[in-house]
Design a protein that fits this description.
rod-shaped
Length: 531
Amino acid sequence: MTDPAGEGVRFAGVSHDITERLRAEGELARLAAIVESSQDGIVSVTPDGGLIDSWNRGAERMYGYTREEVLGKAPWFLEPPENNAVERLVVEGGSEWPEVDGLETQRVTRDGQVIDVSLSLFPVRDATGRVISLAGIGRDITEKKRAQAALRRREQEFKALAAHSPDVILRFDLQGVCRYANPAAALLASRDAAWFPGRDANDLGFRAEPELRTAVQEAVAGGVERSADVRVELPGGARWFDVRFVPELDESGEAESVLLIGRDITGRRRAEQALRESEEMLAMTYGSTPVGIAVLDAEGRFLRLNRAAASIVGREPAELAGQPFAPLLAPEHAARMTAEYLEMLEADEPPAPVSETWTVLHRDGEERLVAATWARFDGPGGARYSVITVTDITEQRRAEEALGRAEGLLHEAVTSGPVVLFSIDTAGTVTMAEGGAYDNRGGRPADTVGRSAWDMYRDTEEGLAALRAALGGERSAFEWHVNGRWYDVHFATAPGRRLLPGGGRGYLGRAVRGGARRGRAVPLRGRERGV
């Protein structure tokens, strides 16, 4: 207010409380900032024609158009030609716009790429309730849709593979509850596949063995595959499975379920057990047999040999391991045997086993005679080896030589003296006759071989009685007159194979030339086997 001179003398003022307005403006500014910085594309259109009147940065990133390029345009340029345009019906509904949430549709970006969008539409009203615009929030779900499609394909592929797999395939959640079983699992358990889902692992016959629990825990915690051998009790009896636990991971890399893939190894386990038993038996036989056994490589070095083989040359198996076999042979054998060994290994096909007699050198310098058989066998990868079996026949050969000398002396003594040594089998047939005691009626003692003693002694009752007593197991004797001479004939039982041709039980006789006398058969006491 002023005075007449125009000078101000008083002032009047009106104050208004604008707290709520400022608060509202601040809230609007905050909401606008949120909208502007949102990763989602937020667009609004006018109610009188559906023209774009706002376009945030999220929309610029999603669709590739700047705000200046789209303001005042209808939004239909973003739609692909084949779109069903549900949102267009909403826009054209005018003031009756309903709210639409999570509408999955497609949009075309500036560079022509079609993307999948989850769209929410809702009307924006002023304080009086009047619709002032229609807002749309679009979220790019292209990657999500791809992931879902990939997941569906994977699930379809998984079920197709699982349905035709001979392996048992089960899916468990993290609580150990079965969620899927393939036909192989159902067949093995004599159940319908629908029986499995919802059942705990313990209900399926799995034994809660520590290694099983550990494998599952490691698969879930570490997100990596684990395996274990599992024994499962089934209606037909217990069976063994080689089980792999494969974690199925979610988008964050955490296990959300576990696949159990089991292969029946019952037959393999039984075969392995049989193999172990066979190997143990072989090792026991290999170590305890008196026959020497050695395995040589392509260069003729010992890969393995048993104690019997090493003892022939007075050594321990460990001393000869990796050493060549040729220096153990006598010099006259070494070069030839080495050449033959290499020839055998270089042949295209393994030749037939070879049996020979070798002279080997004992540690103390003595030469030992061995009967050896060697054969080639081909290992994996084309490797060639040989197996040699050796038996020390030194003492046997010495005994045979001594026996031969003894038989020679006996033969000489019998043929040069007044004795005939003969044998008769259990039928009374002469099987052997040696000696110079009589000329057998102008013939030789050997001419009686094959004749019947019953026929030879038919003219002497004493001879027949002695023969009868001998065949009855009694030692007996009689005096036999033939060709004008008298002989003392003695019988005794004898089982010896060397003295009786053909072997078996028989009877030995001895005839000693005497003077011009005769006598009767004299039975001898007792029974004897051998002479």
